[in-house]
Amino acid sequence: MNVYFLVEGRRTEMKVYPKWLSLLVPELERVKYVQDITTNNYYIFSGGGFPALLHNHLRNCISEINACDTFNYLVLCLDADEESIAARRQEVMDFIHNEKIIINPFTQFEIIVQNKCIETWFLGNRKIFKQNAERSLLRNCIAFYNVKEEDPELMNKPADFDASVSVFHSVYLQEILAERNIHYNKANPHVVTEQHFLEKIIERHHKTGHIASFKHFIDFCRQIRIKIQEQQPF
After folding, report:
1. Is 121 exposed, middle or buried (0-12, 13-18, 19+ CB in 10 A)?
2. Shortest CA distance to 80 belongs to which of 122, 118, 124?
């Protein structure tokens, strides 16, 4: 079982996905180069943001996959941002169709949309949330939308917030963690890669059904692990 991950971010995703995969599918080993792929390996590559991921890298990734013919899956991980999950998926499929890009029939194509962004998933950890916040910006964020009680994936942004919804989600997360004296930014997402943090996000989904796009990733990992275990000799 070999998997090729093409992820949107070059900082957060390239640190978070490898650590989470080591916890969720420990049988899957990362390789540095595509040509090192043998059995139960994955390769991960950053598309450097959207739409560069689509316009500059997807075609090359698929050409690489078709040339070596050893990947069972190509997994595209990208943000929904202001779009719906369905719209973002359709945008990808329309691009592939219009550009006449063909992936070999032995490689399944999965699209995992982070709705709105990967920081939205991190907001699913209720344990980091502090109800009686001291930081004024965090109090304003909570007054706008309480991510401990409401689904983070349904949160928009305040009308007077000039940047994107994804940036607002990232700011909200930074404020929650700063309230606990934990520094977070895209270049240093260490805290969210830890097993206890991941388990709290999974727990949130199981208890509430929130962060549904995160479930797609968890389900994919479970599916891969089952397939790897089924191919193990008795």
Report:
1. buried
2. 118
Q: What is the pLDDT of residue 121?
A: 98
Mean pLDDT of 91-112: 96
Mean pLDDT of 48-52: 91
In angstroms, the CA 14 to CA 5 distance is 10
Pairwise CA distance, residues 162 & 168, whole Å: 9
Write out the E strands in 37-81: 41-46, 73-79
Exposed / middle / buried, residue 192 (Cβ in 10 Å: 0-12, 13-18, 19+): buried
DSSP, collapsed to helix, strand or coil, labels residue 75 as strand
Q: Which of 228, 192, 231 is nearest to 28 (CA)?
A: 228
Sign of CA dihedral 178, 148, 16, 8: negative
User: Residue 150 has what pLDDT?
Assistant: 98
At 22 the pLDDT is 98
The CA distance from 16 to 29, in Å, is 15
Classify burial at 64, counting beta carbons within 10 Å of its beta carbon; exposed 0-12, middle 13-18, buried 19 or more. middle
Rounded CA separation 192/202 (Å): 13
Cα separation values, 57 from 14, 45, 51, 64, 201, Å: 16, 9, 9, 11, 30
